[in-house]
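Format is sequence with structure; example below:
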Amino acid sequence: MKAEFFLRIPLVSLAFLLGIGAGCKGSIGDPGMPVGSPNGSGTGTGTGTGTGTGTGTGTGTTTGAVAAEPGRVTVRRLNQTEYNNTVHDLLGTNSQPASVFISDSQANGFDNNGDFLSLSPTRLEQYQTAAEALVTEALAAPLRAQNLTCDPATGDSCVRTFLTTMGTRAYRRPMTDAEIADYLTLAGQVRTLGGSPDEVIGAVLKALLMSSNFIFRPELDPDPTSLKPHLLAPYEMASRLSYLVYSSMPDDALFAAAKAGQLATVKDVQTQLQRMLTDPKSRLSQSYAEQWLGVRAIETAQPDPKLYPAFSPALATSMKREVDLYFDEFVRQNLPPEQLLTASFTYVDTSLATYYGVPPVAGTGFSRVMLTTPQRGGLLGMGALLLATSRGNRTSPVARGRWVLDALMCAPPPPPPATVMLPSEDVITATSSRVFLAMHRQNTVCAACHSTMDPIGLALENYDAIGSWRDTDHGMPIDASGMLPDGTQFNGRAGLETTLAKDPRLRNCLSKSLLTYGLGRAVRPDVDAAYVDAVAKGTGAGPVGMRDLLMGVVASDAFRMRRGEP
């Protein structure tokens, strides 16, 4: 495929490449506007049907106590992670084209909120550049054989075959006759320009990769102005499930289930989720847990090498992998979410075992180990989280306390007043954190928030800025006593974790976080509170585990249904 030939291909119109069609409320928006912006414009269409089979079992069902009000979900663009994973699963490429795209915005802790996934002219150019490179790679050896199953020399016959195979997977639903006709028109125009059979197929594939049906995840309403909730179409449900667990397009089993109409009931959806959560392809920990814990980018941390010579990006990578494997076990084994804070096991490789001071492990990979020293245990004893909540030259009890309040209790303190002058680093580091923060709280403006954050973060002061254990700070023995905003007292990391594990807000907060991620939108404090409560309570007689929470998320009307908007 000649790269320069793409410049001669008539793009027909942006409406062809980027139009979704009628029936989709919550538009793409003008380039540069956040998706769903009140100033955005654009409409779109498309339909989808589907069938297939699926196996597996699942627990958790809706109780019927929550009235169906699924809320509004803006049509969502694939984020960078989803784009990379999707082109890998679609074409077999190992390239990561979205890694150089404009960074995605985060909202409510995650980067999959459709309201904040904008499409600017610059990003559109990046999609075009990526599509051209992907087409060249996909139609060359060794990927050509898996991506092209017909002879391009046969003309429209091969183009039609290509669209019913590759097109279905790119659109994540069968293409309509009208959509296929549009692509056949494009193929004819390329031939008229003198394009070779390979260039015709390349143009069609590029158009697929530039289509809004690929770049976005459209969900359609029979009546876009009706507020009456309705179940998602089968292929739309397949995509919700696949991007929840895989951060990518549906796999063959999900496509088959959609085709067979086997994604309509709670049991159908949970059966697929159960299967997917045990699939090695699951990326839930990397896409959800790393963002929930704030550790996704810790390899880019830059602790002062003179103060922390033991740190390296490779060590940070091991720390993050520990989090992934730890969270995965809670999902696979359906362990109670409260034990995330109190479990006495973890996963380490050789470098992390040495760093933590636990017995060495065999081989070069990760091994599950039991922790027998008081210095480690639970999420708050993990290097990744401690590193992520520190500064380059010191710990930050404020950041650590704020993280606990926000991520574990869903009670974040308000942001500091704009008029507050932050102390200089020289002042902060002149004495121990406990002494400095006690002086800082003498300012009544600062005390309102710091009196809730500081006593939590100070319980983790035995861990330095890269998560190493220490007994002193500025030559003084560390006082790791702490207190929650309600007055509950504890001592050290273990005391904090035990106290938090008993707090009923923990499970509700985690349920809210999972629902936020699963829906790709903010959870509304009015209507969605009932969904959060239902997920947290579960439906079985026994303890509620991590997988049960996920089963509750996909069983909820908020996940399985949608509605239009006036």
